[in-house]
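User: Could you go from structure to sequence for me? I need the amino acid at each position, not a summary. Structure tokens:
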């Protein structure tokens, strides 16, 4: 097992690796490995060996294959002084917790057991019927269920948001496939938007994540500036074309930082541990556009347009902090 032991904070991740060998020491491949945590309420482990710190304590992670097993000891510590968790939920109780639902066009969200985060009994299943609408999980700072939090936690400090979700089978078919063709010229869907208030396209805000084969090319999923008229560069997510990897977990972390003295903002995005976007400070990045509304995140089945079938997204886990989480690093 590698590593043999690990120490992480609540909300942080560590990837474990189990190497299988035969009696002569030859490495074996293609074997099925099962992963179990002795204390999923402390450290939860995914089917691929990705461990998440849930609460302070200790846990033993065991990997088993063909009757043989190995272990890693994981220690989870509480957040350090000065570290803030603005919200965090794995939807274990079947509710949206600190989030609301924003839906129109027949979109809806409900608890599901089809896909779940390690240690949780439920996820949130959000579905938009064709031809389009929204079924987003909404996080709105300073209002609704987050009254008491800052309206904009990105002001002169890093703000990190982490989302784990699954695109349900049929996601690609909802937009007529991941390749541009005559039948899907106007088809697209989004899984994230970060804006100020319930704003439309390119009015204010930070970043959006989406797929739009005919307007942005055959590149699969990508992230780009919400103010795309200022910067329309698409930053592709690796390994999402031609397949969207339906039924597998995406672990996405966003970093926001608005520098008030300089009048600009920066944003970075990591997908499954790989940095896909890191924009230099720009005046349009994080602009409020004159809005006094708090920062708002939409995740899940955020938007479907020109749909040829229904879009379903399962959201497994969400959190926001003022310290790095997952693969993310602090602003320079």
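Assistant: Here is the amino acid at each position, in order:
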């Amino acid at each position: 097992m590698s590593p043999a032991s690990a120490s992480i904070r609540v909300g942080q991740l560590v990837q474990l690796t189990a190497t299988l060998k035969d009696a002569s020491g030859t490495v074996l491949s293609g074997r099925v490995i099962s992963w179990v945590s002795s204390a999923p309420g402390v450290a939860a482990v995914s089917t691929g060996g990705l461990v998440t710190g849930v609460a302070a304590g200790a846990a033993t992670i065991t990997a088993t294959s063909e009757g043989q097993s190995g272990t890693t000891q994981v220690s989870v510590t509480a957040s350090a002084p000065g570290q803030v968790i603005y919200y965090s939920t794995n939807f274990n109780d079947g509710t949206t917790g600190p989030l609301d639902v924003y839906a129109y066009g027949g979109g809806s969200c409900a608890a599901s057991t089809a896909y779940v985060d390690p240690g949780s009994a439920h996820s949130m299943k959000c579905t938009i019927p064709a031809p389009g609408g929204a079924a987003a999980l909404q996080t709105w700072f300073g209002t609704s269920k987050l009254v008491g939090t800052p309206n904009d936690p990105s002001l002169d400090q890093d703000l990190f948001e982490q989302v784990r979700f699954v695109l349900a089978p049929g996601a690609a078919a909802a937009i007529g496939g991941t390749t541009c063709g005559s039948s899907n010229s106007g088809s697209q869907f989004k899984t994230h938007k970060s804006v100020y208030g319930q704003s439309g396209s390119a009015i204010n805000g930070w970043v959006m994540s989406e797929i739009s084969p005919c307007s942005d090319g055959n590149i699969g999923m990508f992230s780009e500036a919400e103010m795309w008229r200022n910067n329309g560069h698409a930053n592709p997510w690796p390994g999402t074309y031609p397949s969207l990897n339906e039924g597998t977990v995406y672990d996405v972390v966003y970093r926001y930082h608005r520098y008030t003295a300089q009048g600009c903002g920066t944003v970075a995005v990591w997908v499954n541990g790989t940095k896909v976007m890191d924009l230099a400070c720009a005046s349009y990045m994080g602009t409020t556009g004159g809005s006094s509304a708090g920062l708002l995140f939409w995740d899940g089945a955020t938007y479907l347009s020109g749909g040829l079938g229904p879009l379903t997204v399962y959201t497994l886990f969400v959190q926001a902090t003022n310290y790095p989480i997952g693969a993310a690093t602090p602003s320079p």
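One structural detail worth keeping in mind: DSSP finds two helices and 24 strands in the chain.
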